[in-house]
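[Backbone geometry]
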Amino acid sequence: MMADTKSESVVLPLVARNVKTASAASSASTSEGADFIICDIGEEKHMDNLASSMFEDVKIPIFVKLHLSGNGLTLDDASRWIKYGASGLVIGLKDLDLFTDGLLNQLFSTLSASTKDTKVERGIPNKVTLEKMGNDFFRNERVAGFLKLEDKEKQLIETERVVLLEAVNVIRKAAPQMEEVSLLLDATSQIDEPFLLVIVGEFSTGKSTFINALLGKRYLKEGVVPTTNEITFLRYSESDSDEKQRCERHPDGQYICYIPAPILKEMIIVDTPGTNVILQRQQRLTEEFIPRADLLIFVISADRPLTESEVAFLRYTQQWRKKVVFVLNKSDIYQNDLELQEATSFISENVQKFLNAENVALYPISARSALESKLSASYESAKEYTNLLVSDSRWRVGSFYKLEKFLYSFLDGSTSMGMERVKLKLETPIGIAERLVSSCETALRQDCEDANQDLNTVLGIVSSVKEYAMKMEGDGISWRRKILSLVDTTKSRVVELTESSLQLSNLDLVAAYVFKGEKSATMPATSRVQNDILGPALLDANKLLIDYVSWLHSSNDSQGRLYRESFEKRWPSLVYLNTQMTLERFDLLRKLDEQCLKVIENFSASSASKTFDQEIREVFLGTFGGLGAAGLSASLLTSVLPTTLEDLLALGLCSAGGLLAISNFPARRQVVVNKVNKTVDALARDLEEAMQKDLLDTVTNMENFINIISKPYQEAAQSRLDKILKMQDELSAVQGRLRMLQIEIQNLHTL
């Protein structure tokens, strides 16, 4: 049955347990999860023992099932169970007519009096008697585990107040600038005040006349122009004098009028300036007060039903999910029922469409006619007024009576409408709290996205160092190619000089090395290596490496400034705190050993030239040093003559050692060339490794720099994100408590 209902309310079902013994009742209440018990006593003879045992041990409501006979029921049988503490009696429908009005009144109003055996006469109790019995029944402080509505309401109010104040604190932390939190504070402070009935509508729709008709006198000024400039509270006040009303303005800006109208004993009526007024301040006052309303009565004028501004205002009210009762005032302008039916259908259909509502409470009235009827009637009691309205054939007055009856039923806690009034009253601050919490959650979701974006931006800047390292590595390859190209060119020149120097045709060079020995002065080839090849090459290499080191420094400086500017532009609030630290950390970017320059500095052109000279000398001495003059002459002759018969003749003239020396000369020359290649290649490797080391140190410096300067920003972004996530958890917790309160309120009628 509950699954098929369309209600959006959350209602928890009650679990009942049928029992016949006290032990079964105790078990059902303690271990079986029953919410109440139906006890079938049958023909139990030991009623006192059963009642004593059952009602002392069982703390949940107990209903006693009575088996009635055709001979009637004694009042003593029923009243004894009620006095024992039963929450009610269970009888069959066929036996309901055994209860007369007198028996019901006597049963629930004279429980403490002595009873006599009384036979029940047949008769069906009327509605008035049942309502009276119910009211008397619930006025007791407590009946077998059931709290009376007022007590349960008080408990809910206290619980709700605690949760709402917690919501206020969380909302203030989540959104310190949210001004609407004052609405929640006001609603929380007024949760135990009378029901707040707020009258809204466009100006000149007859709101003031309608309120006067409710009050029964012309307390408020009426007119065709806006007559209400402020939010006006109409409260009840006893009046012993002829004074109609007493009005005063409170320090908080509220305008309060105290009026001796009976309807104000149970509710506060709020008159608003209205909508679609010339003064925007008045419209703003009305809109700002809507969230505090427990029930809205929207007054529409029959001469202009449902205007565009009224629709816009209604949509605004639904932001706060308010219950709205519509009053079509001035309905007496319609000529017949057909015109009235067309107007009410038009309003109902459009309100259903605009507000997405299934049912629309709409009362067509004439407030002026109702007020005139009240003023002209000389009655002394509400009953006389009721009889007057019932006998009045004019529908416009009768329709106003229906509206009044609806409102008065709201004030009666024993009716379903009265229960709804209680729920609306309790749900008003919850609705405000949920709206504000929802707004905070929306704002926090955006803040969370921004904080995540900030954190990801910081991490993105930090990780972009990898891209910077790749770019530096790419550019570094070009620099290394330049230096290796210079080294390779130098090597080629030295090798070329070596090969051209180690020729047997260089008679002067051979003679100089062989005959002069180590005492000879520096040879021209050696001077050329030092002055023409190595010297200029080292200067060029040094200049190139200086440019390379300068490029490393400038790249880090430039990129470091870009990183710093990225942080400062993104988070200007942290600039001042990090400026000094950033300036100090810029020195870190230039921390470089400059290994490549040290490699060049450690390479001596003079030493290399001497080594080259020694290698040339050893080749010649090793080739010709062991030959005599004749052998040397023959060897040189062989080297310069064509390989003909003359060669053989020359070789015949030479010793056998000369031929062997000449044949080993190319191999010795190649050894020198290999040594040159090895020496230069080693230099190239040292330079390349040193340049890579300098590049790696440069990138590492940048990584250290970005990690240091990003730390405050990263910590700030992470801290902000952590606070937002914590705040979201707190809001979720509050929202959960608000939902639980709503469930309790929705199930208020079951408790």
